[in-house]
Amino acid sequence: MIYFDNRRVLRTTNYYVQQLFAQNTGDAYVPSSITMEETQQEPVFSAVGIGSWNTAIEVAEVNVNGGRIDPSGWRIRSGDFHMSDAHYVQTDARAAPAMSLGREIFSGETITYTVRARKTGGAEGFLIRFGADKDGNGGYWWNVGGWGNTRHAIEQFIRGDRRSVVVDRPGSVRSGQWYDLKVEYSSNRIRCYIDGEQVFDYVTRPASISLSTTVERTTSEVIIKLVNPLLTPVETSIVLDGVNRVAPQAKQITLVGEKDAENTFEHPDLVVPVFSEIPVASEFTHTIPAMAVQCIRIGFAPLP
């Protein structure tokens, strides 16, 4: 949580989050609940790519949302990708992985990504990359014929190249056979198809607001901690039951930053606590910023 060299000390984002929670624990938990209104499906943003693991492949066609894509200008992250007879081929059967990623970011409620490809040699199958950001981070790949050509799986990128399998099943691919591979990617669902047959229908758990409420008796304060992992601000209505009156102003601490923002020695203050005061009442409206952790301390007098 803290990094240092012989001249500098760096407090990480995680350090500030832990500090906020540790310094605002309260004496006792207070029952609390969240009621969320139905909202429209959030759009997704995605770069796409193609790859393999210890396998040579040939790609005949790539489409996103029905439009033909030319992969010849994609960024080659690893492996030996090049055009050959109007097909995009990866010929290094020892690359683990080989990956080529598109430069364009596609967006929409659903992104449909299709690849027509065949295996030309090697141990496994295809890696269908989707959901990545402009730098090739995050998102998923669909591992077709992985683990020695014994399984299909959707793997989620957690941090850097670290991945976690979210769903898998037995499956394999044959050398020399053309396959039509399709991914339908939305904010709450991923569907994968091979030659029109559905292989996966994975429902993702959507991110949502988290709430923790405690009371500190020595200062007569209700402590509300809020986490908004969404990319958009959230309008809320906060209702305090069982209090006689509340102070007109509350202390607020906010940690907010861009997705995956990290403090570095070059930029040590990208995410730091911001202290402020806000007007409150026994019932008040409050906007939680996007990608934020907040603590609100509200003075109160209990009911007699």
What does this structure look like?
It is a single chain. This protein has 304 residues and is mostly beta strands. It has 2 domains: 2-36 and 208-302, Immunoglobulin-like (Sandwich), CATH 2.60.40.1180; 44-203, Jelly Rolls (Sandwich), CATH 2.60.120.560. Helix content is 5%, strand content 56%. The chain contains 2 helices and 27 strands. The protein has helices at 13-22, 146-149, and strands at 2-4, 9-11, 28-29, 44-52, 55-64, 67-68, 75-78, 81-84, 87-90, 98-101, 106-108, 110-122, 126-132, 140-145, 151-159, 162-170, 178-186, 189-194, 197-203, 210-216, 221-228, 234-239, 243-246, 249-256, 274-279, 283-288, 292-302. Strands 4, 7, 10, 11, 13, 14, 15 and 16 form an 8-stranded antiparallel beta sheet that branches. Strands 5, 6, 8, 9, 12, 17, 18 and 19 form an 8-stranded antiparallel beta sheet that branches. Strands 3, 20, 21, 23, 24, 25 and 27 form a 7-stranded antiparallel beta sheet that branches. Strand 20 (210-216) and strand 21 form a beta hairpin. The protein is elongated and about 80 Å long. The model has no long low-confidence stretch (mean pLDDT 93).
Keywords for this structure?
27 strands; elongated; 2 helices; 5% helix; mainly beta; eight-stranded antiparallel sheet; 304 residues; Jelly Rolls; Immunoglobulin-like
The N- to C-terminal Cα distance equals 44 Å
Look at the structure and give the CATH class of the largest domain.
Mainly Beta
Question: Strand tally, please?
Answer: 27
Classify the beta-strand content into a percent band.
Answer: over 45%
